[in-house]
Specification:
Blueprint: H1 4-13, H2 39-53, H3 57-66, H4 69-73, E1 75-80, E2 86-90, E3 98-99, H5 100-107, H6 118-137, E4 143-144, E5 158-160, E6 167-169, H7 174-191, H8 199-214, H9 219-224, E7 229-231, H10 242-245, E8 271-272, H11 273-293, H12 297-317, E9 319-320, E10 324-325, E11 328-329, E12 335-336, H13 349-352, H14 360-369, E13 377-379, E14 384-386, E15 395-396, H15 398-406, H16 411-423, E16 435-436
Antiparallel strand pairs: 1-2, 3-4, 4-6, 5-7, 8-11, 9-10, 11-12, 13-14, 15-16
Helix pairs in contact: 1-3, 1-15, 2-3, 5-6, 5-7, 6-7, 6-8, 7-11, 8-12, 11-12, 15-16
């Protein structure tokens, strides 16, 4: 059994950085203070919340606060660009910069309703165009500034390619490019509108594919002509890369490097398995989409072939019958068996579309992820779930609890997860990024 809309609404709220001090019923800003208003989403939220209130008023309030939160608080700009085309800039919450991954996940719950709301449709179109421009600015960057008028706080990072004012942070995370692809194809699947996918977008898709392919190199190939390097002067080890910015070594096996994880932390081994799984899924969708809308034939073929290569490589080089899928590998015999709450994760593989929730390979992986065999699975008096090194040992991310529910076929487990999310909200009507296990 699934509870998709409620769980997705709660998941959308995880990106809220601001947690109000108390909660009555609705903690939404007044309509005049919201960054974007969708009359259809507002009506949908009101209708569903009203139905939920009789059964669980606390969960109803959380749903009503969390689902529209991106629209209420993070659409920093929506209007027209210098060419008169839709343009949207969605910040991640507490930082006035746009992450490719976050901005995609923040708006995904609204995309099924774009045909119901023309203003919402244009806002999503604007985000696709903005992400297209961002990828063309720097396909190795994870976050971008609104414009290039000023350098970001990370402009001193030693990096190849060099930092530019348009880039907020230059950590290369494979899933950032996957997020661009996912936003595009999800919008097309729900709207049927291909007008936004013209020459600039196809150029960005081509650049995405080229970037993923060049990062398939072995360490010897990579060292001879590195396409990407990153070093930061920091006391946080996960904020910089070893080997003078190249990152950990690995062999060529079909997988593509992701020096940083979706948590923005540096990886221990070069090939992040959940990110490669996500890339396989999104490239497959893009190949089919391009075939339908008439992209350049080279893009269509490249996307499909690369998808197949990544899919085969994940199963060949990152799966063990006893342990399931590894989180990271180097394709020379070493693996990291763990999971991180941030998506893409191993727990999220069915949510990503890489595997079915009842696939025996996934079930082996899931059992390990949700056990003491995962060093970042925590259980205490407050709840249990997956965390990660980003915020500290012992802290559980509600995101992992929401994904556990979304990937479960057990109604009791789903409701148990929803109760845990509710009970760890501290009566705020929202959810924290993470909470202490006890």
């Amino acid at each position: 059994m699934r509870v998709p809309l409620a769980a997705i609404g709660l998941l959308a709220g995880l990106l809220c950085a601001y947690v109000p001090p108390s909660c009555s019923q609705s903690m939404r800003p007044s309509p005049g203070n919201r960054t974007f208003v969708s009359e259809y989403i507002d009506e949908l939220v009101d209708n569903i919340t009203a139905k939920m209130h009789s059964k669980d008023p606390v969960l109803a309030d959380m749903f009503g606060n969390c689902l529209p939160n991106t629209l209420d608080t993070t659409v920093l700009y929506h209007g027209l660009d210098k060419d008169g085309l839709p343009d949207t800039f969605v910040i991640t919450g507490d930082i006035h910069a746009m992450w490719l991954r976050d901005s995609t996940n923040q708006v995904l719950p609204y995309i099924p309703f774009v045909k119901k709301d023309p203003a919402l449709d244009l806002m999503i179109q604007g985000l696709i165009r903005r992400q297209t421009k961002s990828v063309m600015i720097d396909s190795f960057a994870n976050a971008f500034n609104f414009d290039d008028s000023e350098p970001s706080q990370w402009s001193s990072d030693i990096r190849l390619p060099k930092m530019t004012n348009g880039v907020f942070e230059g950590k290369y995370e494979l899933d950032s490019l996957c997020a661009f692809l996912k936003l595009s194809r999800t919008y097309w699947q729900n709207s049927g509108n291909s007008s936004v996918f013209e020459g600039n977008w196809q150029a960005a898709v081509s650049k995405t594919i080229s970037t993923i392919k060049v990062m398939q190199a072995s360490i010897d190939e990579y060292a001879a002509n590195p396409p990407y390097k990153f070093q930061r002067e920091t006391y946080v080890p996960t904020d910089t890369l070893i080997l003078y910015g190249m990152g950990p070594p690995g062999g060529r096996c079909g997988l593509s490097r992701s020096p940083f994880r979706p948590s923005d932390d540096a990886g221990l081994l070069p090939f992040l398995v959940p990110a490669n799984a996500m890339a396989s899924v999104e490239l497959l969708h893009i190949g089919k989409m391009c075939e339908s809308i008439g992209c350049d034939q080279a893009i269509t073929q490249s996307a499909s072939l690369l998808s197949q290569e990544l899919f085969k490589a994940v199963h060949k080089h990152a799966f063990s019958p006893l342990e399931g899928f590894s989180y990271e590998t180097d394709c020379i015999g070493n693996h990291v068996y763990m999971d991180d709450a941030n998506i893409p994760s191993l727990l999220s593989l069915p949510y990503l579309g890489f595997t079915d929730s009842q696939d025996p390979r996934y079930l082996v992986t899931r059992r390990r992820v949700l056990s003491s065999k995962n060093p970042y699975f925590f259980s205490g008096t407050s709840g249990e779930g997956v965390g990660g090194p980003h915020v500290g040992y012992g802290y559980i991310w509600p995101m992992s609890i929401a994904i556990r529910a979304l990937t479960s076929d057990d109604a009791n487990e789903v409701y148990w997860c929803l109760e845990m999310l509710k009970n760890t909200s501290n009566s705020t009507g929202f959810m924290h990024e993470s909470f202490w296990k006890d």
